[in-house]
Write a structure and sequence with these properties.
mainly alpha
Length: 456
């Protein structure tokens, strides 16, 4: 898998991603401490609001930026967004009011919503071979998982030496180094072309292509399945570990590390697996895995409640603690197996000129799923027993799986004859790619003028 790092351009971009992620991880820790300093016991509400603002920025800004960013020089745009994020992070230590946190977080995440889809859409052009791109996707997943493990440890080390306000400087340095690494390479020219139409046509083009493509509609449903499994972990781990099990901060970190470890195991295994099996089968099985794990977890908790085994004084040496760790590990495996191949579907389902808009649509729509599951996990976890919460999320996961199975056909013709097509013969909608059969996205170049044929 590491062979792909022999490509100098990708290697520098991957390092830029890792360093920016570490800076973002430090920001997360510092922001929580800043919220506690300003709001005290209301810090949770402040962070929850900031998280919601982050998701709103992702959902609303990404499609707009995706429509126009492709017309700009890629390298200059990515560097500008990194510098903008560094400048905003530089202001955070001077915040004195809660509303200022909200404003700066919105601006920072808006810049991230502009940077990330553009960055993701660039990688397929840097690595045109699908096998290389698949390995790059797995490395990207590993980078996110390693960030979740390394950043808290690095923050803890730094906090033993400096005030938390200085953690924001680490975020600034991360974005600046990321900008320098992007500057150090030459990126392929954007294949985007100037398109006619107004703001609505341009900003919704990516979403219209996305929703008109059967496999991407399936991906959207699978995004919801992944968000259901992930949100239960991210939102409720601290409540389960500290509130129900009565354990400490170290056990919270260990539980989250199990989820990240499971995700890393899947990411390491996926390149070889995807060389042998189609994406659809792997992703649907992974979604079913998520639903099954949630079902068994909820059933185990319910059985324990009936037999009065589970009590508020449960300790780490009992059945509940290892059950939680094993469940989080298994959820991490399923989550990564659903999420990692998504870039392959996006790359295969759009012309190079439309790729930035389609990646932006995926960024926005996937985070819209999180915008639903985050508050749902928090609200259900607060008012219902954990067994019922897990059961409800299992039902949500299986419902998403059923939708994905229905809208993403198991076998479609590699190409469909349409008299109105003006696509090149090697367009991914018309050709076989690496031995996999691909559904046809009923999208043509003048999509902004009319809705595509629905002859599915």
């Amino acid at each position: 898998m590491l062979d792909v790092l022999a490509n100098r351009t990708y290697r520098h971009l991957f390092l830029a991603q890792i360093i920016a992620l570490l800076g973002t991880g430090l920001l997360t820790v510092a922001l929580g401490l800043l919220a506690f300093e300003l709001a005290g016991e209301r810090a949770g509400a402040v962070l929850g609001t900031a998280l919601a603002i982050k998701m709103v920025a992702y959902v609303t800004v990404a499609p707009v930026v995706g429509a126009y960013a492709a017309q700009l020089p890629r390298r200059a745009f990515l560097i500008a967004m990194d510098l903008a994020r560094a400048a905003i992070a530089l202001l955070l230590p001077f915040v004195s009011e809660i509303w200022q946190i909200y404003v700066l977080i919105f601006l920072l995440q808006s810049a991230s919503a502009a940077f990330t889809p553009t960055f993701q859409a660039t990688i397929p052009d840097v690595l045109p071979e699908e096998a290389d791109y698949t390995r790059a996707l797995s490395l990207s997943r590993l980078a996110y998982d390693l960030e979740s493990l390394v950043s808290p440890a690095l923050a803890a080390l730094l906090l033993s030496l400096i005030s938390f306000h200085w953690l924001f400087s680490g975020t600034v340095i991360g974005f600046l180094v990321s900008a320098a690494l992007v500057l150090s390479v030459s990126l392929p020219l954007s294949p985007a072309v100037h398109r006619q139409g107004g703001i609505y046509d341009k900003t919704t083009r990516g979403i219209r292509i996305y929703l008109a493509t059967p496999r991407l509609r399936g991906l959207l449903a699978l995004n919801m399945a992944a968000a259901a499994g992930g949100a239960l972990v991210i939102v409720n781990t601290v409540v389960i570990v500290k509130g129900w099990l009565g354990l400490g901060d170290g056990q919270v970190a260990l539980a989250l590390a199990c989820f990240g470890g499971g995700s890393m195991l899947a990411a390491l295994s996926l390149p070889r697996l995807l060389d042998k099996l189609p994406d659809r089968r792997v992703m649907l099985v992974a979604a079913a895995w998520l639903g099954l794990v949630l079902t068994l977890f909820g059933a185990a908790l319910l059985a324990a409640a009936w037999t009065d085994v589970a009590t508020a004084t449960t300790v780490a040496g009992s059945w509940a603690w290892p059950l939680l760790l094993a469940t989080w590990l298994l959820l991490g495996i399923g989550y990564s197996a659903v999420q990692t191949p998504s870039g392959r579907l996006l790359r295969r389902s759009a012309q190079a000129a439309d790729r930035p808009a389609v990646f932006a649509a995926q960024f926005a729509l996937s985070h819209a799923c999180w915008l639903v599951t985050y508050p749902l996990a928090g609200w259900l976890g607060a008012v219902l027993p954990l067994s019922l919460t897990a059961g409800i999320f299992a039902v949500l996961t299986f419902a998403a799986l059923i939708v994905a199975t229905r809208v993403w056909p198991a076998a479609d013709a590699a190409s469909l004859p349409h008299s109105h097509h003006d696509l090149p013969p090697d367009h991914p909608h018309l050709a076989e790619a690496d031995g996999h059969r691909h559904d046809h996205a009923f999208v043509i170049d003048d999509l902004h003028d009319r809705w595509p044929s629905r002859a599915e």
